[in-house]
Write a structure and sequence with these properties.
Length: about 425
């Protein structure tokens, strides 16, 4: 019998890891906005972390967007306007509008959850915002009007006029991402893949780059100082002025910062492939962990691995249709026959690709697709109505089932939850 110790017993009552996951979600959202600048340099001048708001987007014309990030376990009810977290966010927006009149173009309430829209009343934030858009005033509204009550309540909390609240809410939008906080890592990786300069990066590199960008957002959110600043102690200027300058610079993420991070990974890497720890990589799609590990080991581009994952899902949908149309037994026969045909092409593609030297995963992907396109053109009638995406999905399933490899075989690691 195993003796219970802190090393063998999981504490299910300590919310610490959940709190850290929520902070990580906010830093990851900052990373996604930072990557928007890399994708489109005209999007913003900088992203400022934890200064008045969770995030502030500074535009080239020195106008701003304020972003509040609110998280909630997906099993809990959707956000209502009367929830304290929502009221606090809108109150902060109203205070910003009063302190910096005309500077903010937009306020964003961003959540991993969703908004309650059960009835058109004072708990429905989306409805209140729509009503303000239709008529941006509370004049002539009865004292019992949900719109009036909501606006006056925020005005009291923010100690501003109802007109300021109306103006604030007329510029407020809600972004409901509808995702678990732990899935945000994958969203950052997708944002990296959308950047033109990162399109051909191997999946392992995308994971590392994503983690570095999130780490940069984390550092910028922690009081702002990047490192020891001699200027704080040597300048003739007042200490408070210098400290403000240094702290704000540390809180600010700009295009040169994101470009520098990306450039590190565009340069040739001396780090050996074996040093990548899959067990610490978050964001792998559930059910395809082995496929992602194996294709990443062969240094297949992240975009191609994403396409392969989508192709697997397409074949899974087709398989369900087969079951509904032909019955489970026949559908299983068709499915197994398809996999056996595709396995031959996968093996031959790997044999041909590995002759070019390691890593050869990218070339293997290209050859696999060419072979499957040729098979589709020569024996379409024997492939049960499959398209090329379904055939590539079969290659992905064979990879997940350890029939197909994209490098020399290695010990697959169990992904930590």
């Amino acid at each position: 019998m195993t003796i219970a110790t802190p090393a063998t017993t999981l504490d299910v009552d300590d919310p610490g890891d959940d709190t850290i996951a929520r902070f990580n979600y906010q830093f990851s959202i900052a990373a996604i906005y930072l990557l928007k600048m890399a994708l489109d340099p005209s999007y913003a001048k900088s992203i400022i972390c934890e200064n008045f708001e969770d995030l502030i987007v500074q535009k080239d014309d020195d106008s701003f967007e304020a972003i509040q990030v609110k998280t909630r376990d997906r099993k809990h009810p959707a956000f209502k306007l009367t929830d304290d977290a929502v009221e606090k966010s809108l109150t902060r927006f109203a205070k910003l509008e009063a302190r910096f009149p005309g500077k903010f173009l937009q306020y964003k309430f961003l959540t991993n959850h969703e908004l309650w829209e059960g009835k058109e009343n004072g708990q429905n934030l989306a409805w209140i915002l729509q009503e303000i858009e239709k008529k941006p005033t509370i004049k002539r509204l009865r004292s019992t009007s949900p719109k009036r009550i909501a606006i006056e309540n925020i005005a009291r909390r923010a100690e501003v006029s109802p007109e300021t609240v109306v103006l604030t809410l007329s510029k407020t939008i809600c972004i409901t991402r509808r995702e678990d906080v732990t899935s945000i890592d994958r969203a950052v990786q997708n944002a990296v893949g959308e950047c033109r300069q990162c399109e051909d990066l191997p999946y392992k590199t995308v994971v590392k780059l994503s983690e570095d960008i999130v780490a940069a957002a984390h550092r910028a959110s922690c009081k702002g100082r990047l490192a020891f600043e001699a200027k704080l102690y040597t300048s003739d200027l007042p200490y408070e002025d210098v400290f403000t300058e240094v702290a704000l610079r540390g809180k600010t993420l700009s295009l040169p910062i994101i470009n520098e991070l990306i450039d590190r990974y565009l340069a040739p890497q001396d780090e050996p492939v074996e040093m990548f720890d899959y067990s610490s990589a978050r964001g792998l799609p559930k059910g395809l962990e082995k496929m992602f590990q194996k294709m990443a080991e062969g240094e297949v581009e992240a975009r191609r691995i994403d396409v392969m994952a989508d192709s697997v899902r397409s074949l899974e949908v087709l398989k369900i249709r087969w079951v509904m149309k032909f019955g489970a037994v026949k559908a299983k026969e068709m499915y197994n026959d398809l996999l056996s045909r595709i396995l031959h092409d996968c093996v031959e593609a790997q044999i041909e690709a590995e002759k070019l030297g390691k890593p050869y995963g990218s070339e293997q992907y290209r050859l696999t697709r060419l072979r499957l396109e040729n098979r589709l053109s020569t024996e379409k009638a024997k492939l049960y109505g499959c398209k090329i995406d379904h055939l590539m999905g079969a290659a992905g399933i064979l990879t997940e089932n350890c029939k197909n490899w994209w490098s020399d075989k290695f010990d697959l690691q169990e992904i930590k939850p």
